[in-house]
Amino acid sequence: MNALQLHTTIHARGPAAAILLSDEQVAALGSVKNPPVVVTIGDRVARLRIARMGGENMLGLSKAARAELGVEIGDEVEVEIALDAAERTVEVPPALAEALAADPAAKAAFDALAYSRRKEIARSIAEAKQEATRERRLEKALAELRG
After folding, report:
1. How big is the CA angle at 130 (ends 15 and 126), to the nearest 5 degrees?
2. InterPro entries this protein is in (predicted)?
C-alpha cells in the first residue's frame, strides 16, 4: 500500500481545518478520486476521506477529528496518509442499538447511510453527558431515519 509521509501545517478552512494535498500527492496514493484514508499523526490515528473543494485537495479536519488526532489549526505536523482498505464499521452505542433492533425500517435506513453519517449519529448519542440529551439526540436520529 502506498503511503505519504508529509511535514505540513494544519490550515483553517471555514469553521474547520484541513491538510492540503497536491494532485501529485493524491495520485501517489494510487486510488480513486476521493479515497478513504488512515491519517496518523504521532501515535494518534483517524479514518478520514480526501475531498476536493474550491479547487484544492484536502483532508477535512472537523473539531472531532482534530481532537482525535490531537492537533489544532496552525500546528506543524508530521503526518502519514495511507489508503484505508479496511471495512468501515461504526461502534453503535447501546441506546441506539436497542432502538434500531426494535425498528427494522430505521435499522435498514441507518445501515444504508454513508459511513461518515453513521459515525456522526453514533458519536452524537454516545458523547451526550446527560441522559435527557442522549434521549433527545436518539429521538432526533430515529425521526431522521424514519424519514
Report:
1. 60
2. AF2212/PG0164-like_sf, DUF1905
Which CATH number characterizes residue 68's domain? Answer: 2.40.30.100
H or E segment to which residue 39 belongs: strand 36-41
Q: Report residue 35: phi and psi, to 5°.
A: -75, 145
Mode of pairing for the β-strands spanning 44-53 and 36-41: antiparallel
**Do residues 89 and 118 lie in contact, with contact meaning Cβ atoms separated by under 8 Å?**
no
- Say if pTM beats, i.e. exceeds, 0.85: no
In sequence order, what are the residues at sequence separation of 6 or more whose Cβ sits closer than 8 angstroms to the Cβ of residue 36?
Answer: 47, 48, 49, 83, 84, 88, 115
Residue with cell 490515528: 45
Question: What Cα–Cα distance (Å) separates residue 138 from each residue in 37, 101, 106?
Answer: 29, 13, 12
> Is residue 103 one of the residues assigned to a domain?
yes
Domain boundary among 83, 106, 134: 83
